[in-house]
Specification:
elongated; Rossmann fold; 3-stranded antiparallel β-sheet; binds glutamic acid; about 45% helix; about 475 residues; about 10% strand; two-stranded parallel ribbon
Length: about 475
């Protein structure tokens, strides 16, 4: 049986976007599941949209996510090159074949001619579509155009009155009428093939068996099928993924800043790649049971195109943050510290180079907030009380500290603090216990008073640990200022 082969074919126009990452992930999961091959190739023929770093940034983004591939520009493979601009020589025989069989023809229309035609069609209330005016040029007409110096493009001759139907793995039966499709350009006047043409040749030459891509390409598919047929080539299977919508169920725009869309940004903000992979896998795919947390191996085992939805997926930032927190809680504190530390440093909270004591302190600080952290960069806002000069007391906190017991508890605690030989978590526990014995206050009146006095917050992370991290001096200074 032929090898199962899928491909991700981005245009390297920028960073890896969540939509592209999902396509690549689905490709990867299904390739691994079926012991097939996953190819990453680059459609870089549109030089106007080309970004030099686009290739690296796509590959690095995938690598970070934990997706790997079997063939691409970096590791080569049996069907390379994997960059379209390096494959141009491979396309010529197919152009010749289509021209010879009459399935394609040279078109000498200028941009101005085409615009005029479109204008006329629109004025007549028709859908703009190339009229086919160069379909039947006489040798004399061709000669005249050539003499004028016009360079032809090559158009595919769309057969009339045909229904082009295919069984999409996600959308099921899909059909289009050929009469709604005008003869389209397959090679531009500069000799560069267009997307629709190059893509089928690459898919054919790379022996791709299943094409997974976004639904925005659905209307390209009948064009591609007609070309496969005209060339006498087998047609691969297709799976068109529904859109990803933003949280207000509108089409996602790359400019929308309310959601994070680029894989690079997740990395920068300190999301965990395995959480992002898990989240992306659920954008359109639904597992069999209730469970939503999956390792990569589980995803490979359970992923199935039959459970990918026809309806759009909605991008839910809260769900992503929830999921990332699930992974953060399970992770090693050292790993999270490594991700969080640069954010504290960038925010000027900690110096660029840390002493071993400072390193230990940072590790404990991250540990203190690990249960709560949704992504590593959040440490800066969460741990803010450790870095400010003065504590912020809101009305509730002020009311709490105005109660009768507060100065008694704080006075007693201050005595303990000043006399303390060490300021460890255990020592602090004993000190608070001593305050209880001395003052007779316990429970909320004891703990909440100390918490609010030192942090300004009614709720927060482990109190003894927080006091330990604040340190003897800060604790004593903050209480003194209050009293
Ligand atoms: N370069 C196309 C894109 O980025 C690929 C489409 C396809 O997979 O056929 O959308």
């Amino acid at each position: 049986m032929a090898e199962f082969r899928v491909r991700y074919a981005p245009s390297p126009t920028g960073h890896l976007h969540i939509g592209g990452a999902r396509t690549a992930l689905f490709d990867y999961l299904i390739a691994r599941k079926q012991s097939g091959k996953f190819v990453v190739r680059f459609e870089d023929t549109d030089q106007t949209r080309h970004v030099e770093s686009g290739v690296d940034s796509q590959l690095n983004g995938l690598k970070w996510l934990g997706v790997d591939w079997d063939e691409s520009v970096d590791i080569g493979g049996p069907y390379g090159p994997y960059r379209q601009t390096e494959r141009l020589h491979l396309y010529q025989p197919f152009v010749d074949q289509l021209l010879e069989s009459g399935a394609a023809y040279r078109c000498y229309c200028s941009e101005a001619d085409l615009e005029k035609e479109r204008g006329e069609q629109e004025a007549a209330g028709q859908m703009p579509m190339y009229s086919g005016r160069c379909r039947h040029l006489t040798p004399e007409q061709v000669e005249a155009f050539v003499a004028e110096g016009r360079k032809p493009s090559i158009r595919f001759r769309v057969p009339e009155n045909r229904v082009i139907a295919f069984e999409d793995r996600i959308r099921e039966h899909v059909e289009f009428e050929s009469n709604g499709i005008g003869d389209f350009i397959i090679v531009r006047p500069d000799g560069i093939p267009t997307y629709n043409f190059a893509v089928i040749l690459d898919d054919h030459l790379m022996k791709i068996s299943l094409v997974i891509r976004g639904e925005e390409h659905l209307t390209n598919t009948p064009r591609q099928i007609m070309m496969y047929e005209a060339l006498g080539l087998p047609v691969p299977e297709f799976a068109h993924l529904a859109l990803i919508l933003n949280p207000d169920r509108k089409k996602m725009s790359k400019r929308d800043e309310s959601i994070i869309q680029f894989i690079e940004q997740y990395k920068e903000l300190g999301y965990l790649p395995e959480a992002v992979m898990n989240f992306i896998a659920l954008l359109g795919w639904s597992p069999k049971g209730e469970e939503e947390i999956f390792t990569r191996e589980e995803l490979i085992e359970q992923f199935d195109l039959d459970r990918v939805s026809k309806s759009p997926a909605v991008f839910d930032m809260d769900k992503l943050n929830w999921m990332n927190n699930v992974y953060i809680k399970k992770a090693d504190t050292a790993r999270i510290t490594k991700l969080a530390l640069p954010h504290l440093q960038k925010a000027g909270k900690l110096p660029e180079t840390l002493s071993p004591e400072q390193e230990q302190w940072a590790h404990e600080l991250v540990g203190l907030y690990q249960e709560q952290l949704r992504y590593a960069a959040e440490i800066v806002t969460l741990s803010e009380l450790f870095f400010r000069e003065d504590v912020n007391y809101d009305d509730e906190a002020k009311a709490m500290l105005a109660e009768e017991h507060a100065p008694v508890v704080l006075g007693s605690f201050l005595k303990q603090v000043e006399a303390a030989a060490e300021f460890t978590v255990d020592a602090l526990k004993a000190m608070i216990k001593a305050v209880q014995t001395e003052t007779g206050y316990k429970g909320k009146q004891l703990f909440m008073t100390i918490r609010v006095a030192l942090t300004g917050q009614m709720h927060g992370p482990d109190l003894n640990m927080a006091l330990h991290l604040l340190g003897k001096e800060t604790v004593s200074a903050r209480i003194k200022k209050l009293l």
